[in-house]
Structures are given as structure tokens and as C-alpha cells.
């Protein structure tokens, strides 16, 4: 009854989340229908250095043409932002570009702008740092660099201190739009280097003319498939799907070999153990028994700091449920996978709704350990993950504000997230705790009785059986199963690639959970065999060690693969990677513990224990 209740709650919440996303998606699936010469709105978004994707600034922070004059009469300049756009770092604003559906524009003057020496230096610095811009039309992203450097490989200071390279500002944009049955199905921007303006000398103010052209072409691409073209955007290198599937096949082979190896070991070892403990005479058992059976009276002894332990298991289960639901929604097309903000918004909302699961799991386990202060366990569960997230976010947001970057979330968005936590996350966690108190099983159903005095743990153990070695093995083997796919995930998270292989990711994550759980069980058996009954925290740590290995890999990626630099970028990167790896630690740790608990109950339930 208790399990059914919790599953029904989770199913209802998942269904409501699916329906909400499906209804929202249905409204936009058809797209806007245009007639010839209808106005098409082009939206500007952000500018920033190519190698530091997190470092973003408003498009109009650079001296580009604006339409402030028009909007002072018509209304606000800023485009209405949704939660997913704010979380993704978007700051969309209207632009002075005029486009008519299906109508080509060969050459049109956008504006003539007088640039001061300060403006020239600002643009020159932006070109030197490889700044690019992002525009939108019908939610289709368009990218382009604001300029280029001629003879970039030879840029150096001569005797007079002047740059030998030539800094070119792209002043002409060529828009290419694809249409199909009155809908916009593709969009791209091309810069014209032949019309670029030399701004190397910033000591003399200049008047620069900004221009653009528009070309429309009929395409066979359907509107619902238009985002597939953006899996490899203008800055991405083409990817082969075979690499992803070969990675999954490699992981599957590793899983099969690992599980076969473990199955053989367990069949032989456990078979011999069961034969010893069940078939032979009682007096012979007393003479020969050793290993894991000797600690039958201690193996179900409560771990140290049970409140924190239960909170970690509950939070890890909540995060794992969130991860699987988000992957399922992305795989089913209910969430836009081409915009990071959509995934983030879905994750925040799903995590909030799954709080009832975290509260239920942690409180039930706490009661099974004969805990009394269950309200404290609920509070620790509700704060275990959000508290570190808040600290990292506060630091990163402060650094972004100090640098004047729009990577800092607006105050209104911060208030929204705080309200989600205060009025949904906390109450749902408490509700889950109440359900566990009223309907959850308060009996651990341990097959053996716990003694009053704990058995002494052997102090001398071989090096290969030490905890550091076990932790290294527990993290390294699962890490090798996801290493290849992990590279693509990192380049999508911290680069300009758009990750669309969510079917592969779903398989990879499932395999990771399986591998981690199997390895955790095997290591727990070896720990019990050396008469060490402190397996509770070991199961959590062994399972979570993959998160530590991913965190170590993040340093390698940052310094050797990414090209990222700067204090702002580093603050976001290492801060957010700390949170992500902590989440992975809790997820896999809770999964490893759950399977280990079933395993320990099984082996001690099969033997005769006093």
C-alpha cells in the first residue's frame, strides 16, 4: 500500500508535468502563418566572446544601430522574456531590421552611425576577443561574428606600438530565410568581408553606414523539423551519429562483460558460502565461520549521522527521478532541446515537483532507523541540494554583476525561483514526509538482530582492499563507460554545440546507473567479507565516486579542451560543475545504496544467523 501510494503520487506529478508541457507545445507547433509582404520581426539577443560562452552582454552594449526612437513612441524596446529564456541567459530585444515575408531586399541602409574614439576602441576590443552576436526570427537562432582580423597570425606590436594586424568591422549582414507554405523554416546570417570597414586606427572618429540584404527561398523542409538543422549550428563542426552509437555499444559491451564477471564471482563465492553456512553441521560452522557471516549482528546497525544519510538518499532519489523525467520529456519532444534555457526551466520545475518523492524516501528510511526527529530530517532533505546551489549561484551572480554581464539573472527571476522553493519545494518535501509518517513502512525488515555491542573491525587489511582503492575502482569503471559521451555533453554545455542525441543520452545514463550499482554491490560484498560492517556510507560513497571523477575530468576539459579563460567564465564553469557533479554523486550514490541494501538483506536472509 505504501509503495503504491508513493508511485501513484509520482505518476500523477509526472503526468501533470507532461500535460502542461504538451499543451504549451501544441500552441506553438503550428507556427505563425505569413502572407506575402507581412512584417517579420527580427529579434536581437546577446553578444560575447566566442571562447567564453557564459560571458554574455546585451546586444546594444556595443555601438550598433538601434530603434530606440521608434519604440519611444510605440512602446518598450525589450522583448518579453520567459523563464526559460532568462535561465538560458537570453536578453531579447527588438531590432531596426525590416523584413517582409517573401520579399527580397538587395541592399538597404540600416543607419549611419557616428562612432567616437571610445566606440571604435570598444568595437576593436570586441573583434580582438572574437565577439559574436545572436539574433532570432521566429525563434530560429542566427549567429555571426562582428568582425575579423586580417593577418591574425602576425598580430604584434611594432616599434611604434601600433598593431600590424588590420581590424575589420562587418557592417553588412546578408539574411537568408527559407519558407514553406507561409511559414519560416530556416534562417541564417552571412557577413560580407568585402564591405567591412577598417577600424584599426581608433584615434579618429568615423561615420559608418550599416546595411543589410534579405533573400527568401522556397524549401521543402517542414516547420516541425526545422530545428534539426541547428544540431550543428554555424559554429559547430559536423558530427557523426555513428560515434554516439559506437560509444553506447562500447558501454553495453562493458556492462555485459562486467555483469558476467560479477555473476561468475558471486555464483562461485556465494554458492560456497551458502553451502558452508547451510549444509554443514552446527559445530563445524562455529569452527570455520568467518567473513561476512560473523558480522550478522552488526550489519544492520544504524550508520553514523543517520539524518544526513537519509537526506542524501532521499535527495539523490529525487534528483534521479528528475533526471529521468527531463530526459523522457526531451526525448518525446515536449521540451525544446535546442535552447539550454528550456532544459534548465524544465529541470527546475520537475525537481520542485519531485520534492514529494525526496521527502517520502528520506523520512521513511529515517523512521526505519528508529529516528524520532523526523521534521529535522525533512528540513535537511529540503536544503541538502538547494543550499549549495544557492551559495554557488550567489557567488556566480555577484561576479557577473561586477563584470556587467547579463549572465547574472534578473531580480524578478531570482524572486520567482525563491518562491518556487518556498511555496512548492518545501511544502512538497514536508508533504512527502507526512505521507511517509502516516503510510510508509517503519520497519527495515532486517533478517538479523542487531547486537548491543558493536564488533571490533579488523585493523590490518591489505592495501588492495583499503577504502581508497575501493573508491578509485568504484569511480573509474563507470567513468570509462560514459567517457566518450561525456565529451559531447561538455562541448554542448560549455560550447556552441547543440546536443540533440537524447535517446543516446538516455541509454548512456541508464547504463551508468546499472554499472555503478553493480560495482557498488560487489565492493560492499568485499567489504563485508573483511568483517567491516560500516557499509551504509560506503555504499553511498562508492556509488557517488563517479561524480568525483567527472569533476576531475572537468578540470582537464577546461584547461586543455575548451579554450575558456577569464575570472567570470571560470567562476561559472567551476561553480556550476561543482553543483552538477554533486548532483551526480547523490543520484548514483542513492542508486548504489538501494541495490546494496537489497543485496545485504538477501544474503543475510539466506543463512542461519543467531
TrEMBL record:
Give the stretches traversing the membrane.
243-266, 308-335, 341-361, 373-396, 408-435, 469-490, 502-526, 538-560, 572-600
Record carries keyword Membrane = yes
> At the top level of its lineage, which domain of life is listed?
Eukaryota
What is the protein's major site of localization?
membrane
Q: SUPFAM superfamilies given for it?
A: MFS general substrate transporter
Q: Which UniProt keywords apply?
A: Membrane, Signal, Transmembrane, Transmembrane helix
Topologically, how does it sit relative to the membrane? Multi-pass membrane protein
State the Pfam families in the record. Answer: EMP70
Where in the cell?
Membrane
A GO CC term attached to the entry? membrane
Q: Could you provide one GO biological process annotation from this protein's UniProt record?
A: protein localization to membrane
Q: Where is the signal peptide?
A: 1-22
Could you tell me which InterPro entries the record lists for this protein?
A: EMP70 (IPR004240), MFS_trans_sf (IPR036259)
Q: Which family does it belong to?
A: Belongs to the nonaspanin (TM9SF) (TC 9.A.2) family.
What is the name attached to this protein's record?
Transmembrane 9 superfamily member
State the organism named in the record: Chaetoceros tenuissimus
